[in-house]
Amino acid sequence: MNLTGAEILTEVLLEQGVDTIFGYPGGAVLNIYDTLYDYQDRITHILTAHEQGASHAADGYARATGKTGVVLATSGPGATNLVTGIATAYMDSIPMVAITGNVSTSLLGRDSFQEIYITGITMPITKHNFLVRDVEELADTIRSAFRIANSGRKGPVLIDIPKDITAAKCEFVKKEQILIKKQSKKNRDQIEKVSEIINEAKRPVIYFGGGVSLGDASKELKQFINKSGIPAVHTMMGAGVLCHDDIHNLGLIGMHGKSSTNNVISDADVVIAIGARFSDRVALNPKYFAQKATIIQLDIDQSEINKNVYVDYGVVGDVKDILNDLYPRIKENQQSEWMKKIQVWQDKDYKPVDSDTVLKPHQIIRILCEMSEKNTVYVTDVGQHQMWAAQYLEHLEPRCFITSGGLGTMGFGYGAAIGAKFGVMNEKRVIHITGDGSFHMNLNEACTAKTYELPIITIIMNNSVLGMVRQWQTSFYKKKYSHTDPQRKTDFMKVAEGFGVKGYRASNPKEFEAVLKEALEQKGPVWIECLIDKDEKVLPMIPAGGTIDDMIMD
User: Which of 113, 291, 331, 510 is catalytic?
Assistant: First the structure.
């Protein structure tokens, strides 16, 4: 077949199993959009309000489904508007292919209208990027992008396509979808050694992160835990891998983790890190992290071994394969004495106090869990509400808690919720939890949710301040609230009405229950503004660079 570059792009997307993409048109991608018009029965294009929203939507789609998210934008500002979304995906190892248009090859490097050197800009935040200068190379470049995005440690790949390449023609030959072959190293000696250490441990703990769900290894982790009896703590990105009421699931670790989980790490004699990278939100002071323990790290990325914390044994490979190799070598154990000691710490964990007259964040989360379907996908923005969601949501399964962990992107939530909803469509409900600060950043995506009548419920925890930064100012800056009380006059109910979205407001638990019940029955997008006190804090908290001895409990 003799096809244009735009047609080749579309054919290869179909080849790779892509049926949904997110984007925003512009001059440099007009040929691609013209072709998408003809392919609309096979590829659904979702038009967002802004390219950043499109990139977060592609990200949310990938996190909810395990597929590769695809986003399309024009040159210049369209391309640069993707940068935050690409960086967000990069930090959390999310497979994404970002396609940008550019000026024609004859205009490259001439400061042409809407020209930008997007491959240079995105070099540090992509696994790889391409500038296509020959239509003959286009098809295989796109195939390579999907292979790179999904192999090894996953992540975003960018393809920049000049406009004349999308118009040029060449012969196109269809190929089968690329199936990624895992190339795990054989670690027989290391597996034998670490299994001996695990079997001899008296106070072992598993510390796992998002790499377990990205590696589709939650089933293997559960089998390993059930046999070994080893308790587990998790990062924010690991939420949902183990069910919230699993006796071995001790909960969140790190800056806003439980005091018990941080005590477990401090007292453990063996720590088994699985798909986790010892970020500065977990190993706040690497010098004092798990000082009594032999540390074993299982990770697909060699560069993560010894990067943040020195480990005694690093096993590199697919965590699913490593857990399968370890399983037969691990002895059955109940860890009874160790679990009794942990129970004593758990009895002293921070417990928030309920109220009947005002809305407390933990009560909002509890009511959400009680009234929503158990398999609901929760998507958050970034700030205090994100941490309350991580702490109190009753996580049941992987891919049901979607949040920006590494980059901490305020404004991530609404776009990601839209992408997640297109991913799970009629199978699961999507609830978006945000704060008034985060929501102000990208609430324009309400028009997208309304256009497609997506039944996404947005919970706005409105404390009228930039809560997390203000909390730091309270604790570490002598209550000098510099620019964290913006005195905004936004009436979220009127804004909702302007977008055509149903809006509710609640100021106490009974009101919230009543409006949530109505919201759950709506067919399209809904906002619920929850009024909370500006002095609410995320507790407990270990200050940056601190240890468990520095934990703040009130």
Answer: 113
